Amino acid sequence: MHRKLRLSLLKIWRNLNANLLMVSLTFVVVVSVLVYQYLYNEQELDQRLAVVKQIDQADADFSNGLMHLALSGDETSPWQYTLGLTLIRQSLNEYKDAAKRLVNVNNNQEFITAINKLSDTLNEISNEETILDLDLRQRVFVMRKQANILERQLAAEIEQQRINQSSWVIASTLIGSVIICAFAIALTRSRNRRSLLNKTLKLSEQRFFKMLQNTDEVFWLESFSSQELAYVSPAFKKIAHVDAEDVLYKTAAWKKLVHVDDHKFIIRARRNALFEAQDIEFRVLQERGRVIWISGRIFPIWADDEQSQNTKPEYIAAVLRDITQKREYENNLVQTQKMDSLGQLTGGVAHDFNNLLTVILSNTQLLLPHLKGVPELEYTANMISRAAQRGASLNQQLLAFASKQELHPETVLLNALVEDSVNLLSRTIGERYLIDLQNSTQQLWVKVDPGQLQNTLVNLCINSRDAMPNGGKISIRVHASLDETLDGSESIKIMVKDNGCGIASNIINRVFDPFFSTKDASKGTGLGLSMVYGFVRQSGGRIRVDSKLNKGTSFHILLPSKQKVSRLKICRHTKIR
Amino acid sequence: MTHKAAIFFAVMSAIVLLMRAYLAPEPTKILKIGYTSEPPYSQISQQGQPLGLFPEMAQKIAKELNVDELQWVLLSFDSLIPALRDQRIDLIAAGMTITQSRQQKVCFAQPVVASVTGVLSSIDKKKYLPDTPFLQQSLKLVVINGSAESERVREQVLEHNIMEVEDAHLGLLAIERGKADAMLMTEPSLNYLNTLASQSLKVDKLSDWIDKPQLAAFAFSHKSKDFLERWNLAQQKVLASAWFKQAAAGHGFSSEFTYNENLQCTAS
């Protein structure tokens, strides 16, 4: 609390200091201008006062000169004549000089004319040596009269100028004070407004960053010219599993993240984004090799608001989100819809086909007693009957896929059923294969057709065997599933896994399709997994397959549980060769 | 400080500097020289032109300093220092003696000539007795107003025995007409006056009271210290010239003297 108060006081003091500095500087400038103006006026006044003084001096010299001239009649004082005349001439020059300095004053021309006339007269007198001449006296009178007028006029102007100067100083001081006050107020208001704007901006930034921190979208900002990453939001780590520090300020950081196969697409999108925003979808390779799907929009940002065709953007930005899960859901949905459609189609065809086969088989059975003794016809009838039976068998498998086979569900102990099936398989599957059964110690009850469930296990194990022609391990795991549920209810999971050749990602969605097989025609009809699929669905369960090429395949069957399950503990571990 | 504020203050500063430059006075090219009628230091010719050792020397020094124009202002001796202080003139070229009291008011250049104090008196009246101590004689003394002698006399002579006149010619008249018994001035001036006298007058050296020679120099205002330094440099050249030796001797001055005191130039 104490620290907060101290910081607030420090902030106020700094603001005050900044304001004081600005106001003080303004004050200094305004005062300097006023002082200079004042000094300028004072200088003018001084000049006028100097002229007045000069006129006084000239007047004194003139009087002195006259006195010496007047006394020069005495024979003992011949020097007085020269002295007097010199002083008078000197005074006339001073008068003239003063008059010239008063270019703006009235009567100065008349005054100069009077001085010139007097000078002329003095020259004449000095030549003729007749000093008490009427004309001289008259001209002296006129000149001195003019000098007096000029001096009075000058004195009056100086007085007026002094008054004006005082008024000017008062007015200037008032105006200057008003300017400084207005400036100080404007400055304070401006600073307050700026402070408020800064605060608002800071809050806005905080809100924005908070939003970025709590959103799953990644905000990516990169310099357009250098491709240096300027900013990436915190969600980046969640998606790419890479620290932001590892990519920030790096050039073309995206290239290390985006899947190599999508580089061309991204480069094209970046180029097109110069003109308009581009929607993009690409893959990112995570550290452990997991591929995730990213979707988003890439768009340019110009330095100023005005977008121009001729200028390059300052930044290129992208808003991205992880759509891997969404894509998986979509894939599953499509797969489910496809399998449903196929099931309906297959079921319908198989049903009608079954009716036809029934007619063929019935009639063949009726014919056969009548053909005894006609071996050729009996043979033909038997051929028809066997073909019809094979067709019926095939039809049964198709009905199984379409989940329309006739099932006889019973509540059975899954642990025992699976164990029996494994025992059966271990004898038939071959010596090169190891079946690893991890059975739950918990009693797991399910309601299924036990024969069909055994068929399912056999089918899956045969598939695993075929995927490992040189032998290998088939893992079967039975446990109560808490992670995956069936429409929210408890379920039991059976997993059959091998480390065989795996299934390519482009065909994995077709493995349950009827008649789809990667095996030779002699090894199967392509209906095994279709039957498994149909049976699981018909039993209220779900099946999915995970596979990696050359790593192996695992089938996960989820069946509805008939009792409450708890977290399983697999302690019965059986390995059968 | 914001960018705009910085520009604002820069513009204002520029305006202030321009105003200052506008208001700055132009350097003076005209030199106004004050002089008085006190031969042979300075005097007026028949045509009203300045003459004498100091005006002539001032012309030569001004030439050394490349001064464009000289303006001569004739003043009474006592008006010289006030005129200098009022800036009516820039320097005094009247052979003004360097004294302590004057150094409070003006700045002196290096001394130019030395001269002893003399006494001008009537031979016939025998009022002044050279062999009797000066201050023991009850004399009516005439001195020029504002002169160095005037300063000394005022210190030790009774007021009613002192007659102050405007210039040397009036002092001469006072002696001739019996208004005063003796006139105190520098010997060269008194010798010159004696040549104008209509009566039998004599000039004696005053050796017992004012025994030190008086040093005469150009005087400047305290505001012209820089110019004074330049003046001294130029003056040294003129003092070393043959013209000066001849002119000084011609006017009865001694140019051979020693001066060890530091000239003060401090405004009071």
Radius of gyration over C-alpha positions of chain B, nearest whole angstrom: 23 Å
Largest sheet of chain B: 6 strands, mixed
Mean pLDDT of chain B: 86
Q: What pattern of helices and strands is seen along the backbone of chain A?
A: HHHHEEHHHEEEHHEHEEHEEHEEE
> Could you spell the SSE succession of chain B in H and E letters?
HEEEHEHEHEEEEHEHEHEEHH
Task: Describe the model.
The complex is a heterodimer of chains A (577) and B (268). Chain A has 577 residues and is α+β, with helices and mostly antiparallel strands. Chain A contains twelve helices and 13 strands. In chain A, the strands form three sheets. A six-stranded mixed beta sheet of chain A has the order 11-12-10-9-7-13, covered by helices on one side. Chain A has a five-stranded antiparallel beta sheet with strand order 2-1-5-4-3, with helices on both faces. In chain A, a hairpin with a 2-residue loop joins strand 9 and strand 10. In chain B, helix 2 packs across helix 8 (225-239). Chain B is α/β, with parallel strands linked by helices and 268 residues long. In chain B, strands 1, 4, 5, 6, 7 and 13 form a six-stranded mixed beta sheet that branches. A five-stranded mixed beta sheet of chain B has the order 10-9-11-8-12, sandwiched between helices. In chain B, strands 2-3 form a two-stranded antiparallel ribbon. Chain B contains nine helices and 13 strands. Chain B is 35% helix and 22% strand. Chain B has helices at residues 3-23, 53-64, 80-85, 100-103, 148-156, 168-176, 187-196, 225-239, 242-250; strands at residues 30-35, 43-44, 50-51, 69-74, 91-97, 107-108, 113-115, 117-122, 141-144, 162-165, 182-186, 201-205, 214-220. The model of chain B has no long low-confidence stretch (mean pLDDT 86). Chains A and B meet through helix 1 and helix 2 of A and helix 1 and helix 6 of B.
